[in-house]
Structure formats: structure tokens, C-alpha cells
């Protein structure tokens, strides 16, 4: 009974991680610009790989393999978002403009409001 519970739980994590990897891969193909594609890839890497590795850790049990997978999971969770942020900053510094429906960079006009007219 315990083996069945471990198998069901680990396969639940593995299948949900596979779902997020698939959705992230589709997002890479369908998103219009660099920044939204970068978001899709970071979701795929962090959430998808995290759930997959968690499922593998449950399946491996308390062994040295689990410890190695835990180190790999920590590497994904710490290095992935930092790398995505660094790539986004480099793209902005290189002159790549994000595709926006509205330009919200100058929404603060210096007096603490959001630029909208307020009536008392």
C-alpha cells in the first residue's frame, strides 16, 4: 500500500511538471517578443523542472540520489531566475524594447500620483 501511495504521489508530481514544461514550450513558440518568451521559459524551467525533480526525489526514496536531486533543484530555483533577470537586463541595455499595449514607464508624474486626473 505504501509503494502504491509513493508511486501515485511521485507520478502526480511528474505529470504536473511535464504539463508545465509542455505549456512553457508552447509559450516559447506563441509569445510575440523576447520578454514574454523569457517569462514562458522561466516558468517552464522553475515550475516544470521543479515538479519533475520533486517527483523523482519521491520516487528515489531516502538515498544519495535524492540528495543529488535536491542540490539540482536548489540550483534551478536560485540560478534560473537570476539568469532570466540578467538576460532581460542585458536585452534592455542592448536596446530591445518590449511590446506593450500602453507605455507605463512615465506613469508617475513626480507628485506621487499615477498620472490620472482626480476629482474631489
Distance between the amino and carboxyl termini: 67 Å
Largest sheet: none
By DSSP (H or I, 4+ residues per run), the number of helices equals: 3
Q: Can you give the helix content as a percent range? A: over 70%
General form: elongated
- Domain module count: 1
Question: What is the average of the pLDDT values?
Answer: 83
Q: Which class of secondary structure composition applies to the elements?
A: mainly alpha
CA-based gyration radius: 21 Å
**Which oligomeric form is depicted?**
single chain
Number of DSSP strand runs: 0
Order of SSEs, N→C? Answer: HHH
In the predicted model, the low-confidence regions spanning at least 5 consecutive residues are none
Fraction of residues in β-strands: under 5%
Structure overview:
It is a single chain. Helix 1 runs antiparallel to helix 2 and helix 2 runs antiparallel to helix 3. The protein has helices at residues 2-30, 34-60, 64-93. It has one domain. The protein is an all-alpha fold. The model has no long low-confidence stretch (mean pLDDT 83).
Amino acid at each position: 500500500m505504501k509503494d502504491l501511495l509513493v508511486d501515485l504521489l511521485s507520478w502526480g508530481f511528474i505529470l504536473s511538471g511535464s504539463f508545465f514544461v509542455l505549456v512553457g514550450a508552447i509559450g516559447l513558440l506563441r509569445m510575440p517578443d523576447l520578454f514574454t518568451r523569457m517569462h514562458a521559459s522561466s516558468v517552464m524551467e522553475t515550475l516544470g523542472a521543479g515538479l519533475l525533480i520533486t517527483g523523482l526525489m519521491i520516487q528515489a526514496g531516502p538515498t544519495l540520489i535524492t540528495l543529488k536531486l535536491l542540490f539540482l533543484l536548489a540550483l534551478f530555483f536560485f540560478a534560473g531566475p537570476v539568469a532570466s533577470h540578467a538576460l532581460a537586463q542585458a536585452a534592455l541595455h542592448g536596446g530591445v524594447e518590449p511590446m506593450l499595449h500602453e507605455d507605463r514607464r512615465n506613469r508617475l508624474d513626480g507628485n506621487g500620483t499615477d498620472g490620472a486626473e482626480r476629482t474631489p
